[in-house]
């Protein structure tokens, strides 16, 4: 694996070849741009430290990959999302009091509140017997989007984590499945931004 950071990992740069294998496009182009311009292209995939140092790094690429995985699992774009409020009464009383957060922050807040079914895209929940795989991939994604760069796994470790996820070879969609009641249990450890890990 090259030691050169990609600098622009996002869903629009992941293409499929004729065999359905994923290929990452746009490699090396970020190196031709000024650091500030390269970082500006990342949008919601940008690692927190890049807002300050404007540098490309492999750790930032891992963060961007984690956001990409969260995008696939949640069906949400990595833009700003309203943060869940403590209870339904507060939500009804003041919809505007919800603050906008990044996709990783939104996922952490939903997991923290144990609203697990809210995390996953309802289209994914139509497939049978993939809850364990979805939860395992959520673990991978949350490890990738740790706030501190040194707490993120290397991309090699990420690949090994993904390869260790058991896969059901034919998870056909269940047309009659009631996705509103599906709520796989999650035991997740996340970085709360201050270097401490919390379990949910």
UniProtKB/TrEMBL annotation:
Tell me which domain of life the UniProt entry assigns to the organism this sequence originates from: Eukaryota
Q: What name does the UniProt record give this protein?
A: Protein kinase domain-containing protein
| Residues annotated as domain Protein kinase | 1-165
From the UniProt entry, list the residue stretches annotated as the region Disordered: 78-99, 166-200
- GO MF annotations in UniProt: ATP binding; protein kinase activity
Q: Which InterPro entries match?
A: At_inactive_RLKs (IPR050994), Kinase-like_dom_sf (IPR011009), Prot_kinase_dom (IPR000719)
Family annotation (Pfam families): Pkinase
